[in-house]
Specification:
Helices cover 28% and strands 20% of the residues. It is an alpha+beta fold and 146 residues long. The protein has one domain (3-134): Aminopeptidase (3-Layer(aba) Sandwich), CATH 3.40.630.30. A 4-stranded antiparallel sheet has the order 1-2-3-4, with helices on both faces. The protein is globular. The model has no long low-confidence stretch (mean pLDDT 95). Bound molecules: coenzyme A. The site of coenzyme A (COA) has 20 residues, from strand 4, helix 3 and helix 4.
């Protein structure tokens, strides 16, 4: 199977949204077409997508400041394509990009309800560190963000 990985484009949105929903990683607030478009407008390689022909079957989002701290989010592979090494390839592409920009380590968050996925990350060289609780605040409530 010839799987190609490339930066996300706006025209991929419908398929990307479907993948994130299917993978239980879709967050209405941050995963609107506009918010993702802003992200890639600021940093065009910060969302990578995998394709089998015209079918979008994988994703990884990169959040880094090119030197201090780097994260990956939304690593997903379509159900029918799991277990073929595509998730590891996407993760490795994200790591390469972060490294090429001066990053030192890569961090990620695992939902407590999806703890089994830690095995996947361990196989890819990740080690567990402390547990933290997310906190957040809407600093722009007048926009009516949900
Ligand atoms: C996690 C995910 C991206 C892995 O993608 P993938 O293409 O199936 O991964 P790979 O084929 O590269 O898997 C490599 C290894 O990890 C293991 N693995 C993959 N997903 C796993 C899981 N959820 N739990 C335990 N082990 C897993 C595989 O068994 C495989 O092991 P092997 O090399 O010994 O055979 C994919 O399962 C997925 O999209 N899951 C739903 C979304 C999700 O939970 N994302 C992570 C958010 S933090």
């Amino acid at each position: 199977m010839d799987i190609k990985i490339r930066p996300y484009q706006d025209t991929d949105y419908k398929q990307l949204r479907r993948l994130l929903v299917e993978s239980d990683l879709y967050y209405e607030k941050i995963d609107s077409k506009e918010r993702i478009s802003n992200k890639v407008g600021n940093d065009k390689n910060s969302v990578l997508v995998a394709f089998d022909g015209k079918k979008l079957i994988g994703s990884v989002f990169i959040l880094d400041d090119r030197g201090w701290l780097s994260f990956v989010f939304h690593l997903a592979v379509a159900q029918a394509y799991r277990g073929m090494g595509i998730g590891s390839r996407l993760l490795s592409e994200a790591e390469k990009l972060i490294k090429s920009r001066g990053g030192h380590e890569v961090y990620l968050l695992i939902d407590t309800e999806n703890i089994e996925v830690a095995e996947f990350y361990k196989k890819n060289g990740y080690k567990e560190s402390g547990l933290y609780r997310w906190m957040g605040k809407d600093i722009n409530p007048e926009t009516g963000n949900p």
